[in-house]
Structure formats: C-alpha cells, structure tokens
Amino acid sequence: MIIVMQLGATQEQVDAVAHVIKNLGHEPLVLPGEDRVAIGIPDSLGQDERIRFEAILSAMEGVSKVTQTSRPYKLASREFHPQSTTVRVRDVAIGPGTFTVFGGPCSVESYDQFLGAARMVQAAGAKVLRGGAFKPRTSPYSFQGLALEGLKIIKQVSDETGLVTVSEVMSGDMVSVVAEYVDILQIGARSMQNFPLLIEAGRSMKPIFLKRGPSATIDEFLLAAEYVLSQGNPNVILCERGVVPIDRSYTRNTLDLASVPVLKEYCQLPVVVDPSHGTGVAKYVQPMALASMVAGADGVMVEMHPDPREALSDGSQALTPKQFEALMDQIRGLAGYLELSL
Amino acid sequence: MIIVMQLGATQEQVDAVAHVIKNLGHEPLVLPGEDRVAIGIPDSLGQDERIRFEAILSAMEGVSKVTQTSRPYKLASREFHPQSTTVRVRDVAIGPGTFTVFGGPCSVESYDQFLGAARMVQAAGAKVLRGGAFKPRTSPYSFQGLALEGLKIIKQVSDETGLVTVSEVMSGDMVSVVAEYVDILQIGARSMQNFPLLIEAGRSMKPIFLKRGPSATIDEFLLAAEYVLSQGNPNVILCERGVVPIDRSYTRNTLDLASVPVLKEYCQLPVVVDPSHGTGVAKYVQPMALASMVAGADGVMVEMHPDPREALSDGSQALTPKQFEALMDQIRGLAGYLELSL
Amino acid sequence: MIIVMQLGATQEQVDAVAHVIKNLGHEPLVLPGEDRVAIGIPDSLGQDERIRFEAILSAMEGVSKVTQTSRPYKLASREFHPQSTTVRVRDVAIGPGTFTVFGGPCSVESYDQFLGAARMVQAAGAKVLRGGAFKPRTSPYSFQGLALEGLKIIKQVSDETGLVTVSEVMSGDMVSVVAEYVDILQIGARSMQNFPLLIEAGRSMKPIFLKRGPSATIDEFLLAAEYVLSQGNPNVILCERGVVPIDRSYTRNTLDLASVPVLKEYCQLPVVVDPSHGTGVAKYVQPMALASMVAGADGVMVEMHPDPREALSDGSQALTPKQFEALMDQIRGLAGYLELSL
Amino acid sequence: MIIVMQLGATQEQVDAVAHVIKNLGHEPLVLPGEDRVAIGIPDSLGQDERIRFEAILSAMEGVSKVTQTSRPYKLASREFHPQSTTVRVRDVAIGPGTFTVFGGPCSVESYDQFLGAARMVQAAGAKVLRGGAFKPRTSPYSFQGLALEGLKIIKQVSDETGLVTVSEVMSGDMVSVVAEYVDILQIGARSMQNFPLLIEAGRSMKPIFLKRGPSATIDEFLLAAEYVLSQGNPNVILCERGVVPIDRSYTRNTLDLASVPVLKEYCQLPVVVDPSHGTGVAKYVQPMALASMVAGADGVMVEMHPDPREALSDGSQALTPKQFEALMDQIRGLAGYLELSL
Question: D214: distance to nearest CA of chain B, Å?
Fold first, then answer.
C-alpha cells in the first residue's frame, strides 16, 4: 500500500501518517520526492486490513490518495498457480490444447425438443450439452423454465446420449438438487456476485461454469472465482459473455474478447466465450466464435435450437441446426489449423 | 410491435410477413412508405409472444428490424397506477410530501457499536436505521457480517430505540428469517436480478427496499420491482445508488440523479437515493444528498459510523457522527424550504 | 512512480530495475515487502519521462505493474492554485458566491428568433445568452447553423440587450472570427480533445466555456483545460453535460452531478452544469438545474426557445419561455435560500 | 416515424396528433390497439423534419413516445450500396478478399527512426506505413509530433521504400497540407465528430482512414463516414479501435470486435481493426490482430517501433521489430488458411 501525500504536506503530517502506520503494527517507508512525499507499507495486508487502513489513512490531514500495490485475488492468480488448470468431466477435458463446444438450446422446453437438440449437437461434433431448467428472466411474465421437470429431462437425455451437461443454478439452496442431475453447474452473469450461491457452488465440488457479470471488472470476476476456489473446489471455468454496451441497437452486449488473453495471463483457469449472449444476434455468433478460438479461448458456448422460431426464450440469438453444423465444420477446420483437439 | 421492412423489400416479402402475423392470430396493419414499408401489430402482446414473434419475424426475408411500442412493465407503471404509493412502516411514511433519512453503519459489528450508531442516528433526527447482518463482499476474505447474531442485535436495538430498521437479505431462503427481525428488507444492487430472491421478497409482504443494479436500465430496474409487485406485495421502495462509471479514480460509481425524475414519472413507487454508495467517498455524500432532495427523491440512505476509521467495511464512504449531524441539519433546513416533512 | 515487482521476482530482477532507474538519472527507493518488492522513484517526472519510463520498466522481467503517484495536471490543479477562479465578463462574475444562468436557443435561426429569445432570457433574469452559429451535428443532413450570419446576429442582439454572449467555435482557424463577435467561446463536448482548437482558444485570451466530452475522465477533462491554461489564459469555465449512458431510452446522457464537487475539490475553476444536454429531455431540466445549485455548481446552461416546436435543432430538450421563467423563479428562490447572488 | 400514444389517450388527443401530422404535409396512419393507439407517418422524412416533428409531436398531450423507423445514414448504407467498396491506393487494394496490414511507429521521431521502422515493416511484408506527424495528446506536456518536418520525413521515406503511407490530420485547415505528403489521411478517434475536418477530408478526395470515437454508437460512426461521403469522396476506410472500457486496469479500451461483422453488414466500406489502441498493451496485440482476421476485418493497424523503450509516445503498446515479424508470420499463415491475399 502506498500513501501519497498532498503537495505541500508538512513534515508533521508526514510524521503523523508514519506514526499511525507504526501503531497499526507495520513499518512505514517514507519516500521523499521533489514536489511531494509518498509513504509505503511494504508488508502484505489482508483484505480487511486494507479497507480499514485505507479508511484511516485517507482521512488524515495532508494525504492525497491511497493506492493498492497488489491484486486482491490469490487462488485465482496465475502468479500463485503457474500451471494451467484443465477441468475434466467424464471424457471431456477443458483446458490448454483443446477447444470444447458447449451447444444446446437456451431452455429445456420438453423431452422431445431437448433430445432433438442433443442429437443434433452430438451429430455436429460438440461434446457438452447446455439447456436451462431454471431461467433467470428480466420480466416476471416470461417463461421461467421447467424447473425440476427440466432437470430430469436433462439427466435422461444425458444418459441416452452420453453427452456431458451444463445447466444454470440460480440460488444456493438449489445447488444440491441441480448437482444431482447435471454435470457442470452454471452460474449466470446476473448471479456472478450472488455470494451465497458461489459458496454453495464451491462446496458442491462440481465443476462450475462461471459467467462474467455485465459490468464486472476483471478483478471482480476473478474474486467471484476466488469464492468458489476458497471452498476447496479447483474446477472453475470462466466465461466471457459480453459487457454493457455503448450501443444497444445492433448488439445486446459488447463481447470483450481481449478479456480472453487477459484472463489467461493473470489466472490459471480455462476461459470459454459465449458469443450468443455476447452479441445477442444469431448472425454474429459464427464470426465471434471463430475469433474466440484464435484469441486463445478454451471453448465456446453456443445456443442452438431445433427451431429457433419456436423457442420460448432468446430465439433471436439461437442458431438453426443447419447453422450450428456449419459452425462446427468451421470450428473443426480452424482447430486443425491451430492444432487444437475438439 | 412494428416490423420495418428493408429498402426494396418485394411485395411478396411484405405479404409473407403479413401472412405470418395473421397465422399467429393477429391482424397486421401495413404502412406503405416512400422508401420502405412498415407493418404494425396493433394488439398488445404478452412477453413471451413478443419474444417469439420477434424471433420469427426478424428472421424473415426482407425484414430490417422489429421494434416494441410499449413498456414491458405494468404493475410498476404509473400509466396503470396514476396515484403515488406511500410505503408505511409503523409511524414512518415514505412517499410524496415527506423526506425520509435511512442512516446507520454499513455493517452491524457489535451490540455496542450498533446501539451507539442508532442513538446518534435518532438524536440527529433520522427515522430509519440501516445496518447489514449479511454483507455481500466482492472478496471472500472480507468481513462477511455477523449473520443471525447481527439480526438479533438489529431487533434488540430497534426495540430499545423504537427506530424502524432496514437490512439486506441475500437469498430467497433467508427471507423469512430476516423478515422476523427487520422491518424493511433490502435487496442489494448485486441482487437486483436475483429472481428467486425477488419472488420470496414479494411473498413476504414486507416493505422491500430495492437497489438498482450497477448496469441496470430503467426498464430492467422496474421489471425487478414488477417481480415483487406481481406477488401481491405493493410496498416497494426504489433506490438509485449509482451506475458503472466512466472514471473510477475519483468516485466509485456514477450517481444517476436524473433517474429520480424519470422513475417518478414512469412509476408510482417512492424513490430513495444512496449517495454513500453512489459516490463511495464521504465528502461527496452531503452535496449529493441535498441534490437528491431537490431532484424530487423521497429520501436518502446515508452510511455513518460511530468511528469510520474502525469500520470493518466501506469505512471510506461513512460519515462521522458529527458529519451526519451536520448533514441532518442541512436536510432539515432544505426540507423546510421545500415544504417536506422529515 | 512506483514499480511493483511480481511475486517471486528474483533479487537480480529487482537490482536490474533499480539499475535502469539510476541510468535514467533518478534514485530508486527499494521497498522490500512480505510477498513482493516495490520500487519507488521519488522524483517528479515530466509527462514524456513518465511515458518512456513506463514503457521501459513495464517491459522488464519480474515487473508486475507500474503506477503513477501524482495527478497529471498542474495549472488546472487546486493543489497548485488554492484560490478559486472567478471569471469576469463585463458585469458578470462567474465563480464562488454567485449562480449564473446561461440561457437561449440551441441555434441562432434568425434575427427575430434570437432577439425574441434574448428578450425573454433577460426578462426572466438570466445574465448570459447562448446560441449556436456553428452547429456540430451528428448527421450531415441536419441544419448546420447560420455561420458568419449567425455571429453577426449574436453581436447585434448583444449590443441591443447588453447581454453577455456565449457561442461555440468548432475549429482553431475560426477562433479569431468567433472571438470578434462573441464574449465567451464555447468548446463543445465533441471538441474537448480537439487540441489545435484548445491551443487557439487559449491564445485568444477570451473566456473559454469548456464542455466535458461524453466519455472523458476527470483527468482528461482537466488536461483539456490545462491546454487552454498553458497558453496563459486563466479564464476557463468547466461544464458538466452528461456522460455516455447505460440506458439511452429515457435520457440521452447520464448527468454526472457528483463531478461538480469532485471538480471543485481538485480544480480552482468555476463549474457550470448543462441539464439540457445532460438529460436531453425538457421536463428533466428543472429538477436537474436545481439539483446542480445545491451540489455546488457556479451556474447552469439551459436551452430555451421562443417556440421549441419550431426549433431547427434539439427542440425536444428546449424549455418554452413560460417554463424558462418558471425555472428562473425557482432558481431565484433557491439562490435566496443558499445565499447565492444571481 | 411512429408516434405511440399513452394508455388511455382520448380520441381527441389521437385526432389532434393526426391533424398536426396532416398540417405538416404528411398523411397519418392510425393503428388502433388493444390498450393503446399508435400513429405512423409512412413517408420518409429528412433529418431536420424528423427532429422538428419529434419535438412537436412528443410535446403533445397524450403522446407516450416517438420512434424512428429507418437508419439515418444513406451513402454509408449497404442497403443503398450493396456492393462492397475496395479502396485502392497505388498498388494496394483494401477491401474484400485481401487483408492489409498498416504498420509503423506511433510518431515520426526522426528520419532515421522512421526509415528504420519502414524497412522493418516492409521486410516483414506489410504494405502500408503509419506514423504520426501531428499527435493528439491528452496532456499539453507530452510530445506533440514533428509537424511539417514529420510530414516531409514521411514523404521521403515513402519515396525511398515505395510504401503507401497513412498519417493523422487534426484540423480542417491542415487537410491540404497533409494531403500533399501522405497517401491516406487518418482521422483520429477524438476527431470522429470534428465536422469541419470531416468535410475537408471529404473534399480532398484522398482515401480517408476514419477511426471510431471511444463512445460512438454505430449510427454516429456511420454518420461521420456519411459526412466524408457526402462530399463526393467514396474512399473511406472504417477503423474499430476500442470503446470506453468497464475496467481500465488491464486494458486501455474495450476492443469491440463484433462491430466488424455489424459494420460489414450495414455498410459497404472496408473495416480495419487497431488492436494496439484497442487494448493498449503490446502483448494483447497479437491475439486480437488474428481474431480480427477471423471476424472478417479487411486489415489491421499495428504499432511497432524500432525500440519501443525509446518511443516518445505510446511505447507500452508498440511491438518490437521481432514481435512484429512474428505477428506477420502468423498473419501470413492464417491468411493462407482463410484464402485472403496480403
């Protein structure tokens, strides 16, 4: 932590800050400068110490600002965990050297619809089947999902096809139920800072698919992962799905694709991109999915629907089976070029 | 709903769109124009119909875009509810003609700390006491609140002082517990789209203090209120607490004060401003609290702490008791000028 | 400048950084820490040195990040200029203790329209008349202003009424022309970083009304002011006019009212708020104008038009003469309460 | 244009709106609905008519909102210009089927530095040389470029190497000067709405490299292009270079890569991506440059410097010659795979 003094701060003010730091149990390091003084606290501080120190010191006379010198996350930090994590779920490995496609409809609508989607996803060559049983919907009047019935359909379809499944859980008290039926638990963008849910997700020891919140900074995103990791569960997959846009009239979100190399540099966890929510428009899914591969993502999550025009939710961003197949062909081609196994 | 055709769309394409609308059970109204045709669906559509129609129609050949003509919220709409809601909690009325101050520390830290804060809040003339027992914290390593013990302290302090209380509940399964100890249930900014929580909050029939999410549009905010209202609970207080900022280096959020007259115009519910989180800096709380009054807010929520430098959370935005008193004096003065009762 | 080393940086890497700093002509100060080392450069650095040092040092092995310790502006900094600036134009003083209203139409459309507007502005009690002769318009097909003819009208109306005038100049080569006809030169939001214009505006020695760009940080805004000040022209008025919004459907911009106390704290220059552009909606101008007063602004700029429905630009945000009068009455009342002279 | 009436608007209010539209010279089309009425104006309106009509109609009693049905740009619209534009500069063709790399230093610092950079750029296989003679700098204390001397160096180096050149022009009055020395005129992000500059750039008939402003919507960006095109100059290259970020601590901007397919769909002009400014960090340039190719961009602009540590501006985002070469190799490989000619 560095305390920067105001221009013209007096020696008494500098001494007072140094004195308070000593009283707080740390050794201050005074850096005299040409036009102002800075004071460092070389020790590493706990999160609560930081907050308390910042409150105390920034309120002192003569202090201009207080800045932090280290990143707040530890378990989600590549500095502490140099080796990349590969999340393994049955025969699927998500991590370096592979590119995993998570495909399927936004919502599970019926056994027939979901099995149909699964067969198409599988035939096209994708390994993980997505589908929502519990749907977070902006309006209370929108379709809210089939709930438990949806989970049972997911399980049955998974058993029949052998596909690994991922589905969203929206609250901590539902984690154990969803975990019974589904392979990977998804935490949605709007739940990224639902802390009781993050803790239960961590305790479940299931692989967690964590979506970035629409206005989350990288630090906030990695601290959400840290919540899960801090429960002893190392299997977290990060998902970039777009941030709040400057312009909502052509796309729903702004896909922050540069977050892929940023996250890969600072964190050891696999990173997956969701171009369906990231753009909100079916026709932009293909270019953004392929761009994600080249940017270094470990996979993409893509919405498809046996008949998008009949979809009960998010139909305008879902690919048709034919479009999904075409995308898989292009992904396969590019994976060959990039030497990634699908 | 209006479907705008592309420039040069053929008569066949226009007819096809009209035909599909008829098949969907609605009567299309074709608007021929100089350089392009638009087609209206005059009937009002349900939320799911909208989504499905938009998916179907926007995918048709010759269609340029599909736009909605009405706001998606009904119960939270002043068009449907012209009379302003006053939320009453014991002797406190929150609504037109009054200005209610919600004061207190970020977190309940101990009985002594909270009683001390309550006495100061009461002596300064505020009517509602705030304090967190469950704290949503960005980092898992930060103080997470006293939980049930905190709730008990809140209840005890409320009994001793007679102050109305508000405290956050973070998940649906905790609503009934928090509702036992606290007068008003707060739903935090990061939980604004925690839909299971919104539904349980609605069912509790307790007054709900709903904070706007940091990147929530006005429609999303009012739809979150709609979730609560749709459970038959009319007692929702809306709280503006700042949106994601362009610049994080001087304030933590951008307080969107113009949302006050916008919300008051489109919605019948009372609106309260939180300048403590809205700026994140103690010294800007006073000007923004007073500005909120003039902008038409029904109250403010202000963090204070018996000793901000000892606060276990958010110390840098909390007022000292002396600053809080000074603010209350200014609020009292301005309320006199504006003819608002405190 | 502080260089924070990576976790586990070797002693050799720390020494190498210290060595490079010495070679660059500065004395490094090494701060050993528990889990990582930081290295300070206590000397104050020029802007170019900072950039070069940051590039050099951040590329060195073992370096985690490089942070600046001081604000980049000097002439626009209250630390260096503790006394508040009052900008004086004829009999109008813009600064502490006063509240100046800048009123008038978006565009000068004709002599009659502008004189009519001026008479109304004056009768209502405002001191400065605004009106655009050169209009920056998003579309090339929109009304672009009367140009030189508009300037002449401004001058003539100013001579007849005695009102101080402000009008926008859009390029450096037009500064001397506009300066001939107008009292205060406005630099629009979209020109905030038009650096040749800022320099010419500074050289003109005229008072400069500088609008904040829609995505400008506080530092960028004050550095734009610094451009003007660095030419020896101390008469800059800062104008907050809204930043890019989260939600464009209810207001055009998000008025960042907390920037008023922020700017007043860090900079000595007067601050004026433009609630007309800041919201883009006539009915929100009144609450936001009054809120600006309470927040500490030194004035407001308000669009009015003799007949907004006939306005050639931005009609939907202009007040009618009657609304403008009503607003002036409320401003007068509140100014009395706040002990500000109009 | 569609006028949506309020819920419960009276027949008189609907009639009044229809009457006003008739008086304005257009035929209203009333769309009765279940719970509210909408009124269409089928004729296409000019930009000024739109603004005036919106002001008039939105102020009428009973009106809820007024929405536009068509895009405001024409010359920059693929609807009107279905065939993609290829911009040709000497032997370089920028458009479909090719991928053009614009490389070079941020600033021209000296003849030797610039010639050195040019030789490296050429040896690595890039076709266009970039370099700033006039530098828009946030701070007045930063290096502002060599100005005319810089232009002369650019010309001389272009003559010696045969490379096509691009350089920024910052004001309308400098267009003819810069146009004498440089092949392609760049309009920087901060000048995107410098309308006098856009008009002069259009008149020059030179190819224009137009960067998107940091908070510009797609419509605003295409209207800026429209300014140039409306002068009869069809040779505009659009450049995506990042928008205002949610988080400034890991990258300087958020590269909005999905804008590439959006722009390509709605506009016939070539689109180039600038990953150097788009991220602000040298190590993220490579993944974002390659992702741009796959996303459908027609080229990339990449900053490189013979010695980034000695760069007088933006050193931390420039590639070293070695990194630039490695990037060119990867671009060449991927271009082969994608069947694009370099």
Answer: 11
Query: What's the rounded Cα separation, in Å, for the pair C315 and B162?
Result: 52
Yes or no: domain B2-67 corresponds to CATH 3.30.70? yes
Overall residue count recorded for chain D in this entry: 342
H or E, element range at C103: strand C100-104
Quote the distance between the C-alpha of residue B131 and its chain's center.
18
pLDDT tens digits along B174-201: 999 999 999 999 999 999 999 999 999 9
What is the spatial distance between Cα C308 and Cα C301, in angstroms, rounded to a whole number?
16
Distance to chain B for C3, nearest Cα, Å: 19
Rounded Cα–Cα distance for residues C166 and C131 (Å): 7
Q: SS3 breakdown of chain B: % helix, strand, coil, rounded to 5?
A: 40, 20, 40
Residue of D nearest to A261 (CA): D284
- B29-31 and B38-40 beta bridge pairing: antiparallel
Express each pLDDT in B254-288 by its tens digit.
999 999 999 999 999 999 999 999 999 999 999 99
The closest of A136, A119, A84, A125 to A296, measured between CA atoms, is A84
C339 reaches B (C-beta below 8 A): no
Q: Which of A36, A40, A42 sits opposite C70 (nearest CB)?
A: A36
Q: Which of A262, A265, A284 sits opposite D261 (nearest CB)?
A: A284
Instruction: State whether C55 and D312 contact (CB < 8 Å).
Output: no
CB B129 within 8 A of CB B157: yes
* Terminal CA-CA length for chain A: 45
> How is residue C256 written in tokens?
């960042």
- Judging contacts by C-beta atoms under 8 Å, the chain A residues touching residue C67 are 2, 67, 69
Q: Could you give the residue range(s) of every CATH 3.20.20.70 domain in chain B?
A: 87-338
Q: Which residues pair with C304 in a beta bridge?
A: C319
Alpha carbon distance C309, B334 (integer Å) = 36
- Dihedral (CA of D262, D265, D268, D272) sign: positive
| ipTM of the shown complex | 0.89
Task: For residue B38, give the nearest of D32, D40, D64 by CB distance.
Answer: D40
pLDDT for position C158: 98
For β-strands D92-94 and D63-67, DSSP reports them as unpaired
Give the Cα separation of C133 and C138 in Å (integer): 16
Q: What are the beta bridge partners of residue B187?
A: B210
Helices (H), chain A: 11-23, 47-58, 111-124, 148-161, 175-181, 195-204, 218-229, 259-266, 275-279, 285-295, 321-338
Dist CA A96 CA B161 (whole Å): 60
User: What span, in angstroms and rounded, lies between the C-alpha atoms of D302 and D326?
Assistant: 13
Cβ contacts (< 8 Å) between B247 and chain C: which residues? 217-219
Whole-angstrom Cα distance, residue A260 to residue A238?
9
Its CATH architecture, for the domain B87-338, is Alpha-Beta Barrel (3.20)
Q: Cα–Cα distances in Å, from C18 out to C12, C14, C41, C42? A: 10, 6, 9, 13
Q: Which two three-digit tokens encode residue A88? A: 């393994």
Backbone torsions φ then ψ of D331, nearest 5 degrees: -65, -40
User: Where exactly does CATH 3.30.70 map onto chain B?
Assistant: 2-67
